[in-house]
Each structure stands twice: as structure tokens, then as C-alpha cells.
Amino acid sequence: MDERATPRPQVLIIGSGFGGLFAAKALKNAPVDVTIVARTTHHLFQPLLYQVATGILSPGEIAPSTREILHRQRNAEVLLGDVTDIDAEAQTITAETLAGNYTRRFDYLIVAAGATQSYFGNDKFAEFAPGMKSIDDALELRGRIFGAFELAELEQDPEAVKRWLTFVVVGAGPTGVEMAGQIAELSHRTLRGQFRRIDTRDARIVLLDAVTTVLPAFGDHLSTAALRQLHKIGVEAELGTKVVGVDAAGIEVESGGRRRRIEAYTKMWAAGVAAPPVAAALAGTTGAETDRAGRIKVNPDCSVPGHPNIYAVGDMMSLGDLPGVAQVAIQSGRHAADQIKRQVAGEPTGQPFKYFDKGSLATISRFSAVASVGRLRFTGLIGWLLWLAVHLLYLVGFKNRVTAVLHWAVSFIGRGRSERTVTEQQVVARNVIEERT
Ligand SMILES: Cc1cc2nc3c(=O)[nH]c(=O)nc-3n(C[C@H](O)[C@H](O)[C@H](O)COP(=O)(O)OP(=O)(O)OC[C@H]3O[C@@H](n4cnc5c(N)ncnc54)[C@H](O)[C@@H]3O)c2cc1C
After folding, report:
1. Which of 414, 362, 401, 422 is nearest to 60 (CA)?
2. How far is the CA of 283 from the centre of ligand 1 (A)?
3. Which CATH architecture has domain 123-272+366-436?
4. Is residue 130 lining ligand 1, measured as CB closer than 6 Å?
5. What are the extents of the domains in the chain?
6. What is the pTM of this model?
7. Which of 186, 293, 354, 364 has the smallest CB count inside 10 Å?
């Protein structure tokens, strides 16, 4: 039989993050056609978003073009589109773009659409305490952070100066800790001596969380070490403290049954995740159950119950107590790809996904990080060197690795920040300013 006459199975992947990209790469030599449909044209290395927000790295270094990454993979196609509907029976997805909607058919579907920020039912907080999930979010935060120092310099009222120089980060997981650590470095080290009226070292950086430790997932030893280091660099950790209100000029908190207010124009939210809207579309068409965060409860092999040709991977799958981290997304994406290859080859499938935990890392400040690898725990410089090695290994693209190292040298060995540019379009806490005028 003429092989060319037989259409190859169509694998459609939603999302170009860790789960989607690594699934596509794992299908490189498989006898299938792969289409990635994603809302952005880049693959985003989210763990370094905080470095874009604080002027260390450029967006391009952590968000290379998906098309460029996959251009040599002949069986892969990349399409821009926001998937709004999935029809499991008709085996189609519908995507929206500025140029109109389109529908694509699939034989196999991998949904790797990640997670969105959760404000635990208080979505109105988002306006004044933005989260950090995308390049746009990081650039918005960059505008707000650098803009706060500029506006403090212009301010006459000492109380308003204090409000501009108070930064509140909500959520003491890795993102919150890294963000707070970097704002502390910015104000106490990088920007020192660059303003004439304000002393940037007066800045207050407050890290808030309802739980009573920082980095709770890292265990007591590393949590305590991280807290000690945060204190050392001037971050005020207010733990056991719940946020009950957020507005333009500050944040209302409650701890020990007492309510109080922290005056601060610049707030950011790094607490809580929820499944993206496309998870509801997937659950609706497949009848899959979802967990409290809206994530799809998958079979042990990452397939959606009752639909052996549909997989949910990464942050939007709910499987045991697997965490929402990059390695889970990479490995589950590869596992789904492997299951599809087996189905195409007529081999038995259903092998459970086994997660290999390679460890957890979080930087606190330059030359200081905490790392947990198997039973080993590292702090300080050794932890930071491990952080450096792992991030270099996983950053996509040789050019990005080289420029990231240069930018890290500028920031960590020197005192500079190569990426402080904020355009006129980028909001310098515009909602705060509108409120005040
Ligand atoms: C600020 C931050 C810091 C982090 N730090 C760490 C860390 O230090 N270590 C760690 O292991 N993990 C970290 N994580 C978590 C890690 O980044 C995620 O677990 C990982 O990115 C999940 O991969 P994913 O493929 O499931 O989703 P993502 O990487 O989020 O990718 C989702 C993809 O789906 C696309 N998409 C979403 N909805 C649609 C739609 N409707 N249509 C089309 N495309 C869509 C998105 O555009 C994106 O391409 C961090 C996350 C954040 C936000």
C-alpha cells in the first residue's frame, strides 16, 4: 500500500509551556503530525519571570519563540490561538484569534494549558495586586516597581513617600520569596545612590502569608534558613497574616484576630493558583471531574477518564498530590506523548505516570538560595550554585544561556540591572495615580 495515501494521526497540543513543548519534542520521530496551538507565540520559562519584573533579564531570554524552537522538527506545526472550545466527540478544538476563529480536528489531544492566578474568590484584588504568570504581567510589575521609586522622588508629602517605598508581596512560596528578595536587593543595593531626594534603602519590603512559615513545601530546616536570610537582607516577613482587603493605597490584613492596614502603593500577588478556563471546556465535553482548583482529575496514565485519546498534563491535571511545578509538567507531557506513540504503534497502553522528583530550589538573594535534592539540603552559596546550574541547564536555547549569564554577572557581581527599560505604554501603577488625582 502507498504509505503517503494513509493520513498520519493528528496530535494536537494546547499550550506551549513546559508540558506542551516537551510533549511535542517527545513526538519528534513518531509517525504523527503534531500541532501546537497556544495563546502566545513563545515558550515561557516562568520560574525566571521575577527576574524580568526586577530588571535582571529581558523577556526574550526567558521566552524564546516556539516556532524557532521547533523549526527543525519537520512533523511539528505551531499555531497562534486561544482555545475556547473542545468537542471530544467530534474530536475538534476551536481557537480564537484576532483574525477570526478556526477549528482543528485531532486524533489525539494533549491539553497543557497551565494555571491562572487565584485570588480565593476576591478577584477585585487583582486590579491593585497583580499576579505574575506571563511576560505582560512581569513587564507591568517592572513598570510599577521602578515607577514607585521615580514617583517617591517627586513626592512632597513624607507619608506618600513612605507609601511609594513600601512594597507588599502576598504569598511566601518560591515566587513570593524570590520577588521580595529581589526588590530588597534593588532598593538596598542596585538603586542606592541613584536618587537625589529619597534614600532607596528606606524602602520596606513586606512578605505576607496566611501560613506561619516561608517556603512551607521545602521543610522546616530550609524554611528557617530562608527566613533568616530574608531578615538579613531587610525583608519583613509577616506570617500567619491573612489579606482581607486590597485597594489603591494599601492592604488590609488580619492576624491573631486583629485587623490592621499596611499603606503601600505597590502590591503583588503570588498566592494561589486555579485551572485556566479551557479546563472547564475540557471537563464539560468529557464529563471529567475537577478538583477544588478546577484541575482535571486524570487517570494514572494522565488520560482523561473515558477518553483514551485525550490527556491533561502539567499544572492543569490533578493526579495524587503532585505539585504544580515545571518537572511535573515536563515529565507528564513526555509521558502523554509516549502513551500516544504506543497507541499509534498498537502497543499496550495505560502505564501509570511515575514522577521523578529532582528537587526544589528557591533563591533568596544573590549568592544565597535554598535547595532540596532527595535527602540532601543546601543553603547559602552552595544552594545558589545549584540554582545557577539547574537554570542554565533548563533555559531553552544556547544564545539565551549566554546572554542570561552575562546579565546575571552584571546584576550579581556588579550592581547594575541591564533591563530597567519601562516604556511609556507600560503602566506605572496607573490605577493608583488615577485614584489619587
Ligand atoms: C512566577 C512563577 C514562578 C515559578 N517558579 C517555579 C520554580 O522555581 N520551579 C518550578 O518547578 N516551577 C515553578 N513554577 C511553576 C511552573 O512554571 C509550572 O508548573 C509550569 O510552567 C507548568 O507547565 P504547564 O505546561 O502545565 O503550563 P505553562 O507552562 O503555564 O504553559 C501553559 C501554556 O498554555 C497556554 N494556554 C493557556 N490557555 C490556553 C488556551 N485557552 N488556548 C491556547 N493556549 C493556552 C499558555 O499560553 C501557555 O503556553 C513557577 C510558576 C510561576 C508562575
Report:
1. 401
2. 19
3. 3-Layer(bba) Sandwich (3.50)
4. no
5. 3-39+81-115+275-345, 123-272+366-436
6. 0.94
7. 354
